[in-house]
Amino acid sequence: MSHPSDLKLERHLLDPGQSQIGDHVSGCELCQGRLLAMRQQGEDFRRFVYPATLDEVSRPRWRPRQALWLLAPAAGLATVLLVTRPGPPADYVGTKGQPLELTVYVARDSSAHALADGESVPASASLRMRVHAASPCKLAVFSLDGNGESSNLYASPDRVSGAFELPGTVRLDGKVGPERIFAVCEAPKGPLEEAIRRVAGDREEGVRHNATLSDVEFRQTSVLIEKTP
To answer: Which of 19, 65, 185, 187 could crosslink 192 through cysteines, CB 3.0-4.6 Å?
Structure first.
């Protein structure tokens, strides 16, 4: 008997009602055990690792008055892009204060690490995600890999707003190469699918160099990860 991949089991956990493997899982003790282990891992991450990481990255940092004075003239020219640098932690990836923010976490050494855009992770790593929507929106989260294949990771049944953690974990497929995780709000289905096709057509180059899907007017953000052996 063939069994579904870990990725398909993760999707089943996220949305059993839309799962295509429900019949198999209901009659397979092996897959039921795998699902139980995934649930436990997700619960442990949610209860212990994730809160500890949030406490650390949200802790106030001392900033010298001189440094603030030097930065002040540029404040009206551009928003600040948060990337990994010595000093304040990279708890968010994207533009500070933007309407939609996506943070991707990977477990490392019993703690959760917030990934910078373009950061490398093991190709079979398990990820968790946190989204902040400045105003209510119908949210969709999906990924696009270097082979041009997309995977739906989350779709909110109702409008969401504020900061919240996406349920469950997402385990990567084990294939080396780039993968970009997108979060979009209120995206019309037709224009969204067309934008995905355009990026997917360029395969790895498209995934690496298209931080946004198109010029269509919907809120969106993304995080690029590089999957390594």
So the answer is: 187
